[in-house]
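If you are new to this repository, start here. Below is one unmodified record pulled from the training split, so you can see the exact layout before writing a loader.
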Amino acid sequence: MNFHDDNFLPGGETLAGARKRVLIGVLAERELARQNLELPGERVQEVARWFRARFDLTTRARTEAFLAHAGLTPASFTAQMRELAALDAIERHLVATIDARLPDHRRLLTIRDFLLRQEER
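And here is the target side for that same chain:
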């Protein structure tokens, strides 16, 4: 993997994968608005606390150092946390639909196994 390639992002994520994640966030925020669902500021702060704890950003100085390293402002970090909170809210709102579709999605993901077995013949 060439990590200097513009198609790869920090953490080994591909640009295509990142674009899909951003798209999902955009769609979650739009669906939240369309469904007229409220996203309390407290929930955004809860997600931000989770993120900081998950990545050991346990002090203000460490969080500020990360933001500087990443090129994020406090406002852009909060916007990202809002997007994560919106995604979580929509996922919870649509859990029955997601769960109903998941089996077929999992079946579709067996394509690699299918192809490997075909090559073994």
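Two things worth knowing about this chain: DSSP finds six helices and no strands in the chain. The mean pLDDT is 92.
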